[in-house]
Amino acid sequence: MDKKFFHKLHSDSKIKKILHWTIYRIGKFRAHSFDAGIECRFGFPLWLDGAKIKVGDYSYLGPRANINSEIVIGSGVLISSDFRLAGNDHDYRKVGQPLRVAPANKMIKTTIEDDVWIGSRVTLKAGIKIGKGAVVATNSFVNRDVPAYSIVGGVPAKEISKRFNEKEIITHEKTIYGETR
User: Fold this and answer.
1) Catalytic site residue 90?
2) What is the structure's pLDDT at 95?
3) Which range is most confident: 22-26, 104-108, 154-158, 169-173?
4) How many CB atoms lie within 10 A of CB 168?
5) Count of alpha carbons within 13 Å of 149, Cβ hemisphere only?
6) Where are the beta strands (DSSP E) in 8-114?
7) Is the distance from CB of 37 to CB of 56 less than 8 angstroms?
8) Distance of alpha carbon 92 from alpha carbon 94, whole angstroms
9) Confidence at residue 15, expressed as pLDDT on a 0 to 100 scale
10) How many CA atoms lie within 13 A of 110 on its CB side?
11) Mean pLDDT of the region 148-163
12) Which of 10, 20, 32, 90 is catalytic?
């Protein structure tokens, strides 16, 4: 495709503004801020209540995602349906205020690095980091950081195996990114 076309999508163009408005109306969310790279795809509906979201190039966020905090999603990430980012949604320690209307204390940043695959019905605890190239199995609850190129699963998620050995990681990164660690 033409580089000018990608530039238009990547900048604050009319196309991007229309996309943002459409996601806002159809997705039924009130995102604090929303920034998507080129060639991103989104399943609908999305529930993004007060979230700060930044999505890298060529990533996918599946339908029924529920995000209410700050999240940075890298490039080439696949997040399947029914994804949840849990935590930081109510200040339960506020005396005299019902939980239903209690605001969050502060935004907690969650990071999903490049080339990650997150299966269906996965819940991440707010504030963790999923390392580059990791895979998170379906129906998992992730409550701690996931190292790069690890495969994790379960409740709570534990490492099952590595995606690649050291030699394969070097070849993979050189092929995809043109670099090594």
Assistant:
1) yes
2) 84
3) 154-158
4) 12
5) 12
6) 33-36, 41-42, 47-48, 52-55, 60-61, 66-67, 70-73, 78-79, 84-86, 109-112
7) yes
8) 6
9) 58
10) 27
11) 97
12) 90
